[in-house]
Design brief:
Length: 269
């Protein structure tokens, strides 16, 4: 804690210079925050100092290269910067700018050619990457278009389904109302039938004349008529007999009696 506080105080003095240090609460949290700020500030100052030193070194190298070129011009061509034309000075400045842009150590062809080759390779790589990105972008656009079309179709389907549900719900409500009405009507008719039967029973009506009795008699009548059909056919076959008239009459009389018996049974029922 004491060591951090001393370092924070030293950092504040160096940072503020002649200005007084503003008062602050020297608790553990505040000291920790200021200590971290001091470390980051000193680290940044160290990086800046290294960068400045590097720039100074490069400036010295460029200055040395410039002096070397001046001496080379003087020795080989007996030219100085003052004797160069404006165009020549412009060309030299362009060479220097190119060397700075390519980050070469000098302006010789041995430095320019590899740098240009590297730059060309980077350019081709960037163009290839741009083509890949453009192809991917086109694929994404197609997928996006398909997704939007599908979304629109789904929205239309949802709207149609909702409309259909509204119609079906209305139909279901109508059926429910109809069923409710028919059920109530059926209950009312049953109640009326029961009341009518009770009134008929109270008035002394024969039970055989009720609806259920009449239905039963109708079913029995239909069954007897069905049984009479083969007997009628049998009687018709006897009417066609000619060899023995007496025997035929006997058979005819028997068939007639059976038919009369069935008819009487039908009438009695």
């Amino acid at each position: 804690m004491e060591e951090k506080l001393r370092r924070v105080s030293s950092w504040l003095k160096n940072s503020l210079g002649d200005q007084p240090i503003p008062p602050y609460e020297a608790d553990a949290r505040t000291v920790d925050i200021l200590y971290e700020l001091a470390e980051r500030s000193e680290s940044r100052d160290g990086d800046v100092s290294l960068l400045i030193e590097d720039m100074k070194q490069k400036a010295a190298e460029y200055e040395s290269d410039g002096l070397f070129l001046q001496e080379l011009l003087m020795e080989s061509l007996h030219l100085s910067l003052n004797s160069l034309s404006k165009a020549s000075t412009s060309y030299l400045n362009n060479l220097v700018d190119i060397a700075l842009a390519l980050e070469t150590k000098d302006t010789s062809l041995a430095s320019f050619i590899p740098a240009i080759n590297d730059l060309t390779s980077h350019l081709y790589a960037a163009e290839s990457k741009n083509k890949d990105l453009e192809l991917e972008l086109n694929n994404l656009r197609r997928k996006l278009t398909s997704a939007l079309v599908l979304e629109k179709r789904l929205q239309d389907d949802v709207m149609k389904t909702e409309d259909l549900l509204i119609v079906e719900r209305a139909k279901a409500d109508s059926r429910t109302q109809n069923m409710k009405f028919l059920k109530e009507k059926s209950e009312d008719i049953k109640f009326r039938i029961k009341s009518a039967e009770e009134q008929l029973s109270a008035s002394g009506l024969d039970a055989s004349l009720t609806h259920e009795s009449l239905v039963t008699l109708s079913e029995k009548l239909a069954e007897l008529k069905k049984q009479a059909v083969p007997l009628k056919k049998k009687l018709e076959s006897y009417l066609d007999l000619t060899p023995s008239p007496s025997l035929a009459r006997v058979k005819i009389e028997e068939a007639k009696r059976e038919l009369v018996g069935l008819s009487l049974g039908i009438d009695l029922n």
